[in-house]
Design brief:
five-stranded antiparallel beta sheet; 360 residues; 5 strands; alpha+beta; elongated; 52% helix
């Protein structure tokens, strides 16, 4: 039978936990009783392996708290049947749940149960258990997204070349249509790279060591990946210029054409834009593939949590462990436990370092 004890203030707990996590976190309180749409959006973006989904969909939870430190977002909800417990899980990167099935796989950052009245202990568990898994999952997913986008551009090019050189090769009109389809497909993949490649490159730069750039196995890809900055900037500028031109053209043609005539007028402009973007997309395909290979090589440095049977949970509240540049407890990364001091602990201003996906 569910307990009738009074629940802790979820908002107060979330803010207290956020203050103790590595990096800078903001908290957004959500009232699900007055805005079911927000509840649906949160549930659509869950990346927790089922615990928060079970709590949210099977029980009429009234509230949630979202803790954000870009690109990471945690969700806190009450445990439906235990007033002394909350459940904290991860939210997917924006838009990625539409690109991939995030409900299965080895990299799901499974939700964890936390004490509802002990923010220091809750923050310690999040830092030691959930964040390393979450950072690893984000790194792995972004590597896949960038790799798939690079492959998508190359595949679009190969398919277009195969059609253009086939025995029943199309006429000039057909060639133009094939090229336009290739350019449009490349544009979609460029948009994906603009959304994810800069963050992955930034994380790779923070994780790579000087010796990696001289390693024959990783150095060429790491050096090649640096060029993606310039290619992304050119792509962004091309798209921005086209958007401005299109807006100006739309403003002019709205008074001069019917809707059908307007569409006919705009379509060639879009094809020209995609054609301008194609050379940049070719460059991005090579640079993004190198970035994904470099990131894949460094994946083992992005913090996985220790095995549960070896994880030390303190018996009383304490300050979370210091996090090293790879996003894990530095003591745990050396095969040792982090043992708190018995009589003192750092104050709230103590320095805390964050992993490659949290540091700014």
């Amino acid at each position: 039978m569910p307990s009738t004890a009074r629940r802790a203030d979820l908002s107060h707990l979330a803010h207290a936990v956020a203050d103790r996590l590595p990096g800078t976190w903001t908290v957004t309180d959500q009232d699900w009783t007055t805005s079911p749409r927000i509840r649906t959006q949160a549930n659509d973006n869950l990346w927790d392996g089922g615990s928060v989904s079970w709590a949210s969909w099977e029980h009429p939870l009234p509230r949630a708290a979202i803790l954000s430190s870009a690109p990471l977002r945690l969700i806190m909800v009450d445990h439906p049947t235990r007033t002394d417990t909350i459940i904290t899980g991860a939210l997917a990167l924006p838009g990625t749940h539409q690109m991939y099935d995030l409900s299965t796989g080895p990299d799901i950052p499974h939700a964890i149960h936390l004490p509802a009245t002990q923010p220091a202990r809750a923050a310690h568990r999040i830092t030691a258990r959930l964040l390393p898994r979450y950072e690893h999952a984000v790194w792995t997913l972004r590597t896949k997204i960038v790799s798939d986008a690079a492959a998508g551009i190359r595949n679009a090019d190969q398919q277009a070349k195969a059609r253009l050189t086939a025995r029943d090769a199309p006429n000039a009109s057909g060639e133009a249509a094939i090229t336009a389809a290739r350019n449009a497909a490349a544009h979609r993949y460029v948009d994906v790279l603009l959304a994810h490649a800069p963050q992955l490159l930034d994380a790779v730069r923070r994780t790579a060591r000087p010796e990696d750039y001289h390693d024959p196995a990783t150095g060429p890809d790491l050096h090649r990946a640096q060029g993606i900055d310039a290619a992304l900037a050119r792509a962004r500028q091309t798209i921005t210029t086209w958007a401005t031109t299109t807006a100006d053209t739309t403003s002019t043609t709205n008074t001069a054409h019917t809707p059908a005539e307007h569409d006919q007028h705009r379509q060639p402009t879009e094809h020209l834009h995609a054609a301008d973007l194609w050379p940049i997309a070719e460059q991005l395909a090579h640079d993004a593939a190198a970035l994904a290979r470099a990131a894949d090589h460094l994946t083992h440095r992005v913090g996985r949590p220790p095995h549960p049977q070896h994880h030390h949970i303190p018996e009383r509240p304490e300050t979370p462990p210091q996090r090293g540049p790879l996003g894990v407890d530095e003591a745990a990364s050396q095969g040792t436990r982090s043992i708190p001091a018995a009589t003192s602990r750092p104050g709230p201003a103590a320095a805390r370092t964050a992993g490659p996906l949290l540091r700014r």
